[in-house]
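Hi V.,

You were right to ask for the full record rather than a summary. Here it is.
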Amino acid sequence: MKTILFHTFFCCIYFLLGFVFIFQSNAQKIGEIKNHFGRPTIFVNGQPQVPAFYALTHATGGRWSWEEVPARNLKNFADIGFRLFQVDLYFEDIWYKNSDTLDIDKAQRQVRGVLAQCPDANVVIRIHVNAPFWWNEANKDECTQFADGEVDESLKAGPPFHNEEYDINRSLRASLASEKWKVEAGQKLVEFCKKLSKTAEGKSVVGMHVSGGIYGEWHYWGFIKHDPDTGKAMIQYFRNWLKNKYKTNENLQKAWKSNAFSFENVTVPNVEERLKTQDGIFKDPAQEQRVIDYFTAQQQVVADDAIYFCKIVKENWGRPLFTGIFYGYLHMTFNRQTVGGHLFIKEILESPYIDYLAAPQTYWEKSRKIGGSGNSRGIIESTLLHGKLWLDEIDNGYLHPDTSTDNIRYKERYNPEYEAVIRRSALLPYLRGIGFWYYDFGLQKGFGWWDNAKYLANMKAERDLFMQRLSVPYRSEADVLYVWSQDAFYYMKSAWSPISMNILDHSAEQALRSGAVGDHVYDLDLEKVNIDQYKAVIFMNVFKLTENQKNFIKKNIAKNNRTLIWNYLTGYTDGKSLNPAFVEQLTDFKINRITSPNKPTVKFANPEVSYSLDAELNPLFEIVDSKAQTLAQIPATKQVVVAKKELKNYKSVLCTLPLNEFAVFRTIFEQAGCHIYNSQDNFVYANSGLLLVHSAVAGEKKIVLKNGKILNINIERAGNILINTDTGEVLMK
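Predicted structure:
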């Protein structure tokens, strides 16, 4: 009798548990991003998640979740514990010509395909709100035009090619300033959200990644080599933008120093006007406000679009979900930040409708390869200061040390160097308090880039470790603060210059391999930073500063014996004029303008290091301050270009030619009192009790922890070391 009762009781419990599971699997999921132990974190139904996704490709042949190869790779990641997945969907797929309503069948099938491999999956849809190609052809007056040539309407996209084919060319694409596209696409997005959210598949959707512009990354069409947007939609937008800024024609003409323009006849600048500068690599706002205004308007329309569509998603899904966009790129933006970069970062960071920002990890080959930092393209700590999550897109295939970036997405079936690169690419975001997704471009090759037992085992181990550490409080261990600017680009040549890629990519990578650990913020966020923890503050590309910003730096940062490093001409413009006196007042150095040699060389005495820029640099100044200690000169002329001064409350280091070289950064940081974990030019990063060391060279690594413990760790091949900074225990190799 007891056996029968026990069996009946067990069956009831089993039935109830099954009912609960079915109920939960069919319940509507709620996705949010909230603070969790000091870092923005993804929550699903109130539970924190390790911010690691697997994402299918956008490319034809690998993007549909229900097909054989994508399904296999979805299952691979589900089997190792991943529960966050991302799939692509374009308006092109569901918004048909001559149809009044959307066909959301493909959206449902995309989600169902994920759930078929992982029934408890949490799905994020990357929804591309660009106009369908048929819409562009029917609305040519609403499309982008280019200052450097005609649209090439022969550049078709879509199957058998992917939907983003020719985005970087002068192809036919709806202007991002088109009000008609924005309104109609917005109406379709409302319809999409209301329809899909009510389906069974929609219950598993926890987030929406809203994509537009080139590759869905909110870059302006064709920006890398071409000059948008001279179309009717942009001209009308620009005129309205100017009316809003200047109010009267008299104010406009005064600002532009020309009576030739009024609100009624304004056009956008041509190529010659865009590229023209008055002072070497700098635009003078006193003379070139028209071009500065145009680029500002173009930047604003893109940011406004992104906020507009994210707001629609938030307000029409019917329950909480998180939204994100590609935005905030600074590093590796092809020297074209002004034309198609992300300069309206302040407005994006302050928007309540955007929960996360994202970008592929850097495409700078020296960073991307084995031994490089694998740096994020955005300014991470500023993003976190605003309560936004940052997500890296890991889309790097195997890049052999002897190949160029042209082969960046080629990968052998298995490669030990690539294994080390993947580990670095995942560990660094985890340590920085951010997240990532693996974006599987390789699916178009017939198998996934990570369809390999060794790769998958590593990914599981990494995810498991950080699952255990979800409740470890976020703690910055940086004593260097890197300060960056997006506003500076409005006042710079909108093309390559000797310092553009040098500072943003080459120099940044060398600083990251100095052995010191730093945080990175925008100049606009200095007031939000706990400045007390930093012993060195380096202003990397902050060539524009307002009077209020300069006063804040002088009052709040230039103290406590801190070292301030001014890289090139910090504060050279205040947004109204260019003036070397601004640099002198800020840095406490006397400078004198000189003629730049071709490819100027910088020679340091300590360390004994020399390097050269790729071309002459204008404007160029020498330091002529008798109270300054010389650190580096132009060897041919002995003109001082890097010097140091010991001031009452702080130390000032002025570099009128940008800093380069691992050893130079290491020496300056070490003299500032910053901790050097490793002096072997390896990439190191520490945060929240963990230290990552990544090296392209096998052998013994000497690591000095902040608690004084010295570790000598041998690695048999190029790769990574993950260390507990409190105990010195090696957690991963």
